[in-house]
Request: fold
Amino acid sequence: METREFQRNQLQFAYFTPNYLQFENDFYEYSALDTPLTFLTDDILQSMAHSQQNYFKLNKENAKDNQDHYFYFKIHTVEHKRLIRQYVYDGHALHKRD
Reply:
């Protein structure tokens, strides 16, 4: 548990930005999940970090339109705290980008 707490502080969404607000809007537009995004963010960040991917997939079973949805992020390090990786929303797609 201590390791997860430590890692949680190293992985962050760029909250309080227009990009994050757009991510919320896009997620809720396509997601059929009953769980609010707030309760999923830590798991989403952990999943992207462990897989070393800049996106996560909302699979078709959890989407309102029964299609896979990909949510892409740019990953930045916080300048004065190099251990922190900040994920900035970069957009949504129905197909995986190459």
User: Anything to note?
Assistant: Residues 70 and 97 are 9 Å apart (CA to CA). Residues 2-93 form one domain. The longest strand covers residues 81-93. The mean pLDDT is 86.
